[in-house]
Amino acid sequence: MKALVMAHHTPPLLLMLLLCTGSSSFQPALVIEMAKILSENYCFPENLVGMQEAIQQAINRGEIQQISDRKTLASVLTNRVQAALNDPRLIVSYEPNAVPVMPQKQPSLPTEQLIRLVRNSVKLDILDNNVGYLRMDRVIGEETAAKLGSLLRDNIWDKVANTSSLILDLRYSTAGEMSGVPFIISYFSDAETLIHVDSVYDRPSNITKELWTMPSIKMVRYGKKKDLIVLTSKRTMGAAEAVAYALKNLKRAITVGERSAGGSVKVEKIRIPQSDFYITVPVARSVSPITGHSWEVSGIPPTINVIAKEAVAKAKSLLAVRGAIPKVVQSIADIIERFYAFTDRVPALLEHLKYTDFSTVVSEEDLVVTLNQDLQTVSEDPRLMIKYMPDNTEDEDPAFDNVPEDFDSLKVLVDTTIKVEILSNNTGLSPH
Ligand SMILES: *[C@@H]1O[C@H](CO)[C@@H](O)[C@H](O)[C@H]1NC(C)=O
Ligand SMILES: *[C@@H]1O[C@H](CO)[C@@H](O)[C@H](O)[C@H]1NC(C)=O
Ligand SMILES: *[C@@H]1O[C@H](CO)[C@@H](O)[C@H](O)[C@H]1NC(C)=O
């Protein structure tokens, strides 16, 4: 009991406890080695206090020593570690027949193979209305990108830059390198404002690397103004998630599709010394400076949820809606200028419209809500109102039944996708 109490305080005492209570069995030694691996490799070192308590409790209750079946032991340890650290990626396995694989750095491929790899993983189409469609099945790392610089620029990035809007398809992107993330975000940003995109903490080296957009890249940027839709599926994983997460949270892209897989920056399977047990450990983690959170494990919920198969069609219709925004806004500005009764408020309204943020507008209804909020705040006039009327629907909105009779309504057909209706006081419309 004394040993138990003391063991609560420091790891060396935990070690003594384990050795005392189970010196004849292999389990305590295994657990100690496992704890050591975690303390040197697990990317949330601040959480490890809980792990030690969980191990201790299991030992104290004699559970660990009683389990002689190694596979059962592996699954018990997995449960304990997962519960203590609340991380489903931690897995203890017993693999007596595993062929040991030396963790090694990927050898750099010869240029020809790199070219083939890129050809097979990046595909560009130009769709109707000069909409670009870029399917990227892997995020190309910095090193490869440097080697293939002009090839990628001429065949991909310069062609993309000429499109009016882009669908970036990451639905099949299951591989790639984090080092490629800053380039992609840079391409879709301006050079003037550098953005801190991600912070990646690597536990074994105890180094946090900040990923920032780059002041200069070797190609014409897409910039931050043109519409960008990112497609994700439940298979989208790893570096592609880092790309989608950053673009979404920077409000640079609207994401369409399914919640992404929730992968990891880096997971390693490490052999527990002197045993046939392994422990799978996430050794690095990503934290977004924008959200303070990560795409890891939980994945990224899309802005617009549709099954992956329907994502392209949805993206196209979204781009059509978004493509109409400038024209709609211009028409509204014209109408306000010509008809709005409170002429003193007109300049402020027009000025405000110029700077309204439409980056997250995904539907006609959205656009109308955004505009109404803006216009009503600036004008302090709840009757200044825009209404969306889909084709073939009569005025069924009960809110409009309450509009007093003496307010005329002005219906304006802006284009085939959006109709706006501006309600205005009679005085504003009287045709003198
Ligand atoms: C992009 O457009 C410009 C101007 O229209 C043109 O000069 C250039 O060749 C185009 N680039 C590509 C890669 O299509
Ligand atoms: C990791 O580095 C920080 C300083 O950047 C230091 O305070 C900390 O003790 C280091 N942790 C380990 C386990 O080496
Ligand atoms: C609306 O018009 C009525 C008369 O038609 C007028 O009395 C009223 O002041 C106007 N309201 C505004 C806000 O201009």
UniProtKB/TrEMBL annotation:
Signal sequence segment: 1-25
SMART domains: TSPc
Domain Tail specific protease stretches: 110-307
The organism's taxonomic lineage, starting at the top: Eukaryota, Metazoa, Chordata, Craniata, Vertebrata
Keywords from the named record: Signal
Pfam family, one: Peptidase_S41_N
GO biological-process terms attached to the record: proteolysis
Name of this chain's protein: Tail specific protease domain-containing protein
Domain of life: Eukaryota
